[in-house]
Design goal:
The structure is a single chain. The two termini are 47 Å apart. The chain folds into two domains: 10-40; 44-116, SH3 type barrels (Roll). By secondary structure, it is an alpha+beta fold. The protein has helices at residues 10-13, 24-40, 52-64, and strands at residues 68-76, 79-90, 94-99, 102-107, 111-116. A hairpin with a 3-residue loop joins strand 2 (79-90) and strand 3 (94-99). Strands 4-3-2-1-5 form a five-stranded antiparallel sheet. It has three helices and five strands, in the order H-H-H-E-E-E-E-E. It comes from Floricoccus penangensis.
């Protein structure tokens, strides 16, 4: 606690600084943003490529039951991308996949894994 007895004004003498509490809202939002970005950073080597028949089955189930799913897509040999949304249409060559407010066309052969999101 800082000694403010030198001041002639009672408002200054009685002021209690909240310290870091006044910055807590700022740090919490920054921390949450950083945590969300860290969740999306995934090592591509953690995933085993699923069989195409299994992928098609899971995609069709997600489409028919209108499930929200998480897709892990291989962009390149060492880079992946994660999409969360609902399947809009499944074709033999590609899947049209809904991600938040935009449509994504994703090739089935680039899908690494699929899982349901609660």
């Amino acid at each position: 606690m800082v000694d403010r007895s030198y001041s002639k004004f009672p408002e200054i003498r009685d002021y209690r600084d909240r310290g870091m509490k006044k910055w807590q809202g700022f740090f919490i939002s920054e921390h949450n943003t950083a945590m969300k970005q860290d969740k999306l950073k995934v090592n591509p080597d953690e995933f085993i490529q699923a069989e195409e028949d299994e992928i098609m089955l899971l995609l069709n189930q997600a489409f028919l039951n209108e499930l929200q799913i998480k897709l892990v897509i291989r962009k390149s040999d060492d880079d992946i991308e994660i999409f969360i949304g609902k399947v809009i249409e499944v074709t033999m060559n590609r899947i049209i996949y809904f991600k938040t407010s935009e449509m994504q066309k994703i090739s089935i052969d680039k899908i690494i894994s699929i899982e349901e999101v609660d």
